[in-house]
């Protein structure tokens, strides 16, 4: 299902957002599943994406694709522009 979330995707900002809720195209370059806990129904995945991508929206879309619902529990930015997590 993660493969379906790569490439150019349409996204609309969340209801509570500092920007207008216009439909936008954002590019997802790569997605990797790092871990999945079947008992808890939780997964960890890594995303390489264009600036302005709504990762929370990606989680909701992944749940819709899988037919189970989805939400984001935590977001960690490990790289942004030239800064990286150490």
TrEMBL record:
It comes from the Eukaryota. GO terms for biological process: box H/ACA sno(s)RNA 3'-end processing; mRNA pseudouridine synthesis; rRNA pseudouridine synthesis; snRNA pseudouridine synthesis. GO terms for cellular component: box H/ACA snoRNP complex. GO terms for molecular function: pseudouridine synthase activity; RNA binding. Residues 56-80 form the tRNA pseudouridylate synthase B C-terminal domain. Gene3D superfamilies: Pseudouridine synthase. Transmembrane segments: none annotated. This is tRNA pseudouridylate synthase B C-terminal domain-containing protein. It comes from Romanomermis culicivorax.
